[in-house]
Amino acid sequence: MLPPLQERPAIYTYYDDTLKMDADRKAVESEILLTWRKAWWAHGFKPIILGSQDAVNNPLHEEMQKLQLEPEIQAALSMWFAWERMGGGVLCHYFALPMGSYEDSLLSFLRRGEYPKLTRYEGLGSGLFSGGKAEITAALKAALESKELPKSKDVLQVIPKDTFSVDPTPEAIAFYDSGTVSAKYAKIAEAILESPPKGLKLLNQLMNAHLHNTWQNVFSDGIAVLKPLPAHMTAVIEPGLELAQLLTQCPESPIPASCPPNREKCKFCVASTPLKITTPAQYRNVSSKYTIGTLPHPYTLVSLNGMKERVDVRHIRRNTARDQYLTTATKELLGTGVSSALRLLKFKEAVASPYGAARSIWLIAERPLLDDLDWHFGFIVPRTILDSGKSETPVPGPERRPPPPPPDPQDGPVPDEKELPRERELLEKAKAFLKSTKAGHKSLREAVEAWNLGDMEAWRFARAFLSRSKVEREKWNEEEKKYGGGVGAETAVRQAWGRWFDRM
């Protein structure tokens, strides 16, 4: 059984969909809003885009209409009206993105969904607020009664300062406001002045690159592509290996050697020295290492591990141990002599706990890779494996080339040129067998599953968790399309993944 669906607190941004602008500008702003949604979704939030209708439906909006105010302050107040009508929570500009560890103290606090004070954050201006409805209502009424309101352009100038609790500059929030972009990314600022659509497109690309690079900095010890029973599991983990290679690539960026505004001393991505990818047999709970697991159905595991196309009950009971995947994967974590029930509990924590889900993804060997990985990671995952940037001698022949690096002892044996095609063939036949409705196939499948109850439960759990995550996200995306003309919703045709993702 899956644990209860993790409650996602709402985080709001405001976008005035009634403003007149050309199609190119609106399209790129929608892309930026989508970047904002993906980043906050991956950090455990429910990102909601508010619009002018949400502001107009607030009774306080009518009071503003009676005043003669500058357009800038009207727009700023409208954002607060929309937020107050939603009952408070977290209000965030769509140029403010989470860039840090999932367990960052501020992000953890915001995910709790309890905001006792109206709070702003040092150095972020109007980039991020949190608070309850009563405090927001009081702040808005004070602003509307202020004599300085007609001459102001910023809500913060007319709300009494003691209304807010001011917290220190957060470490995990990057705010790409105009002042920051001008000061730190002059190339982008100049491009925005010359052509807003093209400049904003570059800014969106920069933000995505910074999100990806921040993820690489968080998992500085690299990626572990889990490979229990390594002798004949290479074909099973190939999609996971390719995903790892894509994640360790340097993201495309208009300013490659740049850091996010909140991380001035980040480590730049260098193509010639990517994050390390290992294929250990055991799962290790290391906060600075990301884990990609690929679970085969017990029948698939038995077939590949024995390199046998045909498996019978006699072979299963006499020549295979129970729950081989679970036992091997958790051996280092739990040792030997531990029941499958306890191993299964630890496995489920690794898959579905907030801590585990932020540091791993568990795939199913017999199913295609999810097509919404950008939402899982919070940035656009590259679709093509590029050249590493390492140079080789132009002289033909292997004698002048540097020797390949020695294999990592964690990685286990590597199949030769004959074994790997055979592994792939057996994997495809195992997939076909599991889909078969023949009576003999069904009874054999049930026998394998009964012999490996722990592995079977782990496989079903990981499969169900992936499916539920996808359904949750797609349902949310469909809801968001109903508001604001679908701005910030995912409507574009997804790019193809790689050869292994297509064939899986």
Describe the structure.
This protein is α/β, with parallel strands linked by helices. The chain folds into two domains: 10-175, Spore Coat Polysaccharide Biosynthesis Protein SpsA, Chain A (Alpha-Beta Complex); 219-380 and 405-503, no CATH class. 46% of the residues lie in helices and 10% in strands. A six-stranded mixed sheet has the order 2-1-3-6-5-7, sandwiched between helices. Strands 10-9-11-12 form a four-stranded parallel sheet, sandwiched between helices. The radius of gyration is 26 Å and the shape is elongated.
- Can you tell me the residue ranges where pLDDT is under 50 for at least 5 consecutive residues? 391-405, 492-504
| Helical amount | 40-55%
- Note the gap between the termini: 26 Å
How does the major sheet shape up? 6 strands, mixed
Structural class: alpha/beta
Largest beta sheet: strand ordering: 2-1-3-6-5-7
Shape: elongated
Strand content range: 5-15%
